[in-house]
What we know:
Strand order of the largest sheet: 14-26-25-24-15-22-23
Distance between the termini: 71 Å
Helix content: 40-55%
Oligomer: single chain
CATH topology of the domain at 441-537: Calcium-transporting ATPase, cytoplasmic domain N
CATH class of the domain at 441-537: Alpha Beta
Number of helices: 25
Number of strands: 26
Amino acid sequence: xxxxxxxxxxxxxxxxxxxxxxxxxxxxxxxxxxxxxxxxxxxxxxxxxxxxxxxxxxxxxxxxxxxxxxxxxxxxxxxxxxxxxxxxxxxxxxxxxxxxxxxxxxxxxxxxxxxxxxxxxxxxxxxxxxxxxxxxxxxxxxxxxxxxxxxxxxxxxxxxxxxxxxxxxxxxxxxxxxxxxxxxxxxxxxxxxxxxxxxxxxxxxxxxxxxxxxxxxxxxxxxxxxxxxxxxxxxxxxxxxxxxxxxxxxxxxxxxxxxxxxxxxxxxxxxxxxxxxxxxxxxxxxxxxxxxxxxxxxxxxxxxxxxxxxxxxxxxxxxxxxxxxxxxxxxxxxxxxxxxxxxxxxxxxxxxxxxxxxxxxxxxxxxxxxxxxxxxxxxxxxxxxxxxxxxxxxxxxxxxxxxxxxxxxxxxxxxxxxxxxxxxxxxxxxxxxxxxxxxxxxxxxxxxxxxxxxxxxxxxxxxxxxxxxxxxxxxxxxxxxxxxxxxxxxxxxxxxxxxxxxxxxxxxxxxxxxxxxxxxxxxxxxxxxxxxxxxxxxxxxxxxxxxxxxxxxxxxxxxxxxxxxxxxxxxxxxxxxxxxxxxxxxxxxxxxxxxxxxxxxxxxxxxxxxxxxxxxxxxxxxxxxxxxxxxxxxxxxxxxxxxxxxxxxxxxxxxxxxxxxxxxxxxxxxxxxxxxxxxxxxxxxxxxxxxxxxxxxxxxxxxxxxx
Length: 707
C-alpha cells in the first residue's frame, strides 16, 4: 500500500485555514453578555453557508467564516435583534503585544540570573577567599554579563537615542549605573578583587524592568480611533450603469456616479438623494435619536444606515473628502494634541537625571582628589548612581496606576491610557452625549389613560410601522388585542394612518396631526389623545449630576438630538447646562474651547463623539459604543456602570495622591541614602539592597489604592 504524501494531506487543511483567516468581521454594539454570545453563535451556526462564527464580547465583534455577502450576515443578526456593521479587517491594526512579551522575557531572564548569582554570592559572603572566591566571581560573571546585556537592552537603547540628540532622560543614569556596576565587577573578578557586584547590576535591572512593564500595561490597551473609523467605512458600493448594477470598490467610484443603497446597508460615500425619499438612521453619526426622513435632493453622509426601501443617490464626495473622513482627521489631530500631556513621572525625570549625573561625577572627582585611588573613586561613583537610581521613581506612578486599574476593572471600568487617571483626577467639568450615553435604546410610555378601544387601535397602528417608537409602543401594548384596520398608510418621518369602523385613525407627531408640537399622539376621528413617550434613561443617570456637583465638578449635556428631547432629559436628570442639534465638528470644537480653561471629561458613544472624545482632557465611552468611540476613549464602561462614574473620579484622585506620596518616599530615601553613598560608606551591593528596599516600600504604598 502506498502511503500518502504528508504535503498532500496537509494542503487541504492549509487551504481551509487560510480561508478561515479571512473571516468577515462585524461590529455589534449591543453585544453585552454570555447570553448574547450564545444567541448569536447558535443562530449563525444554523445559517446555510456559514461554517463558523466566533464572538468577541470584549471588543463587541463577530467574526463569520462563510462565503455569504456581508449584507446577508447583517440581516441574519438583525433578525435576532442585533444591529451589525461590517468592518474592513485589512484596516484594523493587528492585535498583539510584542513589547509586553519582550519585557516579560527580559524580566524573567534578569530575575533567574539574579537569584543564581546571589546564591553564588552567599559563598563569598560566608568567607570564601583567594582562588575559591575568584572562581565564584568568574562563574557569576558568566551568568550575569549575558543576562545584563540582554535584559537591560530597553534602557540602553533609549539612553543612546537620547544621548545622540544631546538630551538626558531617566534611562541615561540607569544605563550608566548598570554598565559601570557590571564593568567594574568584571574588572574586579579578572584582577582577583575582593568584591564584585554582579548581583547589584542584575537586581537593578530586574526592578527597573518591573516598573517598565507596569508602565507598559497601563498603555498597551490604547489604540488609534482613527484606524477604527477607517474600518467602519464601507469599502464597496453598488454602482448603476444603465439598467445594470455592479459591485465595485469605493476607490473606483467617481463623483457623479449613480449608486443604489439597499435596505439595511450603510451609505458608502457622501451623496445627494435621487429617489423620492429615504429613511435613514444617523444616530451614530449625528446623535439624532430618531430615524431621519429625507426628500429627493437631500444630502446624505457616509455611514448612515438605510432603514426602508432601496434608494438611489449621486456621489458628491468620496475617499478623504467625505464627512466621515473629515471626522477621522479631527480625531487624529486631537489624539496628537492630547498625547502631548506630560505625566508626573516625566516632569520628575527632567529634573532628576541631570542632578544624578552631576552628583556621581562630583563624588568621583572628590574621592579621586581626596585619596588618589581611582578604583575606590569609581566604586563610590557607582554606589551613588545605584543608590540614586530612579527605580522607586520609575515605580511610583506605574505601581499605583496598575493597582488602581485593577480596582476600577472590578467596578466595571477598563482604563486604556497610561496617563488617564492623572488627567481624570484633575477634571473640573464633565460633558455627556445624550443618545446611547445617558439613554438606552427604546422608549417608555404612559398610556394608562387610554380606553381599551384606544389601546387596541394604537396597537394596530404601531404594528404596521417599522419606526423605533412604533415598535416600542407595540411592545408596551403586548397584552392588548390589536384592532382590525383598513386602508393602512405610512408617511415616513410623520406617522401612520388607517380606517377603523369607518372613521379615520392615525398615530404620529402632533404637528402632523393637528399642527401643535412634536409629541406622540393618537387620533381617532377628530380627537387627538397625547401619549407620554420618553426615552429610557440608563440606570444611574439621575444620580450623576448631584454626585458630581458634590465633588465640585459641573455637568453638561451636548447632543445632536432635538432641543425638546435634550431639554426634557436635562430636566429629568438635573443638569442645568445643555446644548442641542450640535454637529460632530461643533461638538469637538466646543470641547476643545472648554478644555482651554478647565479640565474636561467627555462621555460619549457615537461616531459623532469620537473627535470630542479625543479632544477632551480625558474621555469615557460606554461598552455599547462602536469600536471607533471606545478606542478614542481613555476609559470604557463595561456593563451598566454609568452611575459609578463619580467613584471612578474618586479613585483617580486617590491614585494621584498616592503617586505624590510615592515621590515623597523616593525623595526621602534619597535624602538619607545619598549622603551615605557620597561619604563612601555604602558599597554598590549595599546601594542595590537599599534601592530594592525603597522600591518595595513604594509598591506596598501603591497597594493602598485598592482599599
